[in-house]
Amino acid sequence: MYAITAVVVAAVIVTADWATLQRVFLDPEIAAESFPGIITIAAKNTLIFTVLGFTGGLVLGLFLALMRLSSITPYRWFAATYVEVFRGIPAVVTLLLVGFVLPIALDVRIPGTYGPGSVGLAIVAAAYMAETIRGGIEAVPRGQVEASRSLGMSGPQTTFWIVIPQAFRIMLPPLTNELVLLLKDTALVALVLGSTAATVDIYKFARNEVADTFNGTPLVVAAFVYLLITLPLTYLARWLERRGNQSR
Amino acid sequence: MTAAGPDPDVPAIRIERLHKSFGTLEVLRGIDFQVDAGEVVCVIGPSGSGKSTLLRCVNLLEVPTAGRVLIEGVDITDPECDADAVRTQIGMVFQHFNLFPHLDVLGNLTIAQRRVLKRPKDEAGTVAAEVLARVGLTDKIKEYPARLSGGQQQRVAIARALAMHPDMMLFDEATSALDPELVGEVLDVMRRLASEGMTMMVVTHEMEFARRVADRIVFMDEGVVVEEGPPARVLDDPREERTRTFLSAVAQH
Ligand SMILES: Nc1ncnc2c1ncn2[C@@H]1O[C@H](COP(=O)(O)OP(=O)(O)O)[C@@H](O)[C@H]1O
Ligand SMILES: [Mg+2]
Q: Which among A47, A186, B17, B252 has the fewest CB atoms less than 10 Å away?
């Protein structure tokens, strides 16, 4: 494995046309033109889509997880089907469904400039989070529920005050990973549903710059901005995981 | 159940022809017995004889298959009965403490007071301080359960139950999970509770505790009550062969 990698790297270094590469992908003047817009507009919009999609996905995913654990069979079937369907189809297709099929088929138009994109992302995220949340809830020992019920707390009170807070701690590392996946999926929104000057995200912003300058440098800048956000989150997830393992 | 508290003439716990099965396994096979208000009853018997199941039927953590359970005269096996309301009258202490690890001691002691009894925050806090003092852990109010010893955790669990001002307490092998040197502090708290007049149903393997604290001992085996009576009678002069076998097995340790 390492040998192959080393050969490939060596081949690239020897054969690459470094001057051309730098001109097309690392032109400092063109890179400078991406600023400050890529931060003040594009990164802001990427974060808005991420936060809206994540929050929506968390709420929907929680309901799906509770349905999946319910004693009522139709609830379980519904949740299981939802999870399989939306994990099984590409996010692009889901966004198309929300943005174009839903308005035509059911006359449902999601309002707001961020609306359709966020809802599409939330629908996808919920499918993944539902499974994470279910795993977290099932990991809370039965004795916790029994202690809570024996104090007179009702089933819903027990779920809300005792089970979910503990499940949440267990879920925090995988949820952070899902946040990173979702953040990267935000690039699909503009691609599928289009965007305006106000809602342009990092990826679309870079594509526009590429079209204007006939140069690939803005894409490299975009990649950097994505990493600037995702790397700390990835490390946060890893840290939370390590801390979780220690307290057990 | 009235606000006036327990009526001394009505048994605190009355169990009639109680049966409980898990699938095809019949764990309780017709239990009859009662605990009077202010009485301390210790339930002893071999592992797997159904002691925990019996205790858990008393506060409906397990739903009986047949028979009746009356708490202060109210039939809690009646499907109309509000199980949550009944449970606020019955404190329960578990073998593994089951403190809420995401809440500090104060949170553990106040959550049900606030959510179930709707006590305001400061009143719940006052009650918490009071019951914590009764188990001798006033200085631990801000600690999280993970930072307490097993004995301290179990004392907090007892305080958590007491904070609801229950009419009776159930103990399911409250000291079985503790290191030997921590057993005493928990038994002391239980002994004090008993002397204050608390109605208690105690599943235990601590024969010395049962002898000195119980008003009555019940010996269970294979889902039935084999024999019951005053501690000295059951422990020193058992009438049933099964009781003798069990007691001599326990004495080996
Ligand atoms: N939830 C359950 N499902 C199936 N079997 C159970 C369950 N709870 C207890 N049992 C069985 O019932 C029997 C009595 O258990 P238990 O009441 O815990 O006995 P004890 O407390 O006297 O040791 C055991 O054989 C146990 O395996
Ligand atoms: Mg038991």
A: B252
